[in-house]
């Protein structure tokens, strides 16, 4: 009789020890925090698929004196971490909140290379004459150069698996500089017409003759200038479409490379 009682008590103790005494949502969170999963989820190819389902960007303030931009970015990330799971028969919850410093979370790098190339494409709407287009393109090149100088300290150093984004930024800078140089050449091919003042003559006949000669020369100069301007506009439109198609093709190709590129290093190449 006593043996059966002891056996029953031992069985009850084993059952109580197998199941947690606390099954609240907070206890579930504490259980997941104790796992201390601060490393990236490890799969066969050592990569994790991150789904950005929502992205919102807002500009809050612009300080032109100190060249400072205050912005707000709201993004929703979704990824699968098999280790952050629990038994739903014990914890009947579908969601749980955890402190961000206790689990691994992806980092987001925001760049403006696509926007600055888009601004360079839109700059072709500015007229060739007057110098507005050249000033705008020079400003874009200088701004992007300063951006690369600041970003250079944030990216990893050169190695066998150097970030693809380094090549992307270099190509963007080459595109901007090439566009600026072509714009300067086309602007030089489309000269402005300037009026030259003549000194007054003593006699009316000589003055009228000079005025007629000046107007004839000015008319010939205008015709020649119109020919150069039409030729420059044709080249400008042709270069715009070439630049536009190349930019779209490049960004599509670079997007494919960034999503599919996998760097493979042979750590045993010293044996060869």
Automatic annotation (TrEMBL):
GO terms for cellular component: membrane. Keywords: Membrane, Signal, Transmembrane, Transmembrane helix. The keyword Transmembrane helix applies. Pfam families: Neur_chan_LBD, Neur_chan_memb. One of its GO terms (molecular function) is extracellular ligand-gated monoatomic ion channel activity. The chain crosses the membrane at residues 108-129, 135-155, 167-186, 240-258. It is a multi-pass membrane protein. Residues 1-20 form the signal peptide. It is found in: Membrane. Residues 113-185 form the Neurotransmitter-gated ion-channel transmembrane domain. It comes from the Eukaryota. Residues 35-112 form the Neurotransmitter-gated ion-channel ligand-binding domain. This is Neurotransmitter-gated ion-channel ligand-binding domain-containing protein. The lineage of its organism: Eukaryota, Metazoa, Chordata, Craniata, Vertebrata.
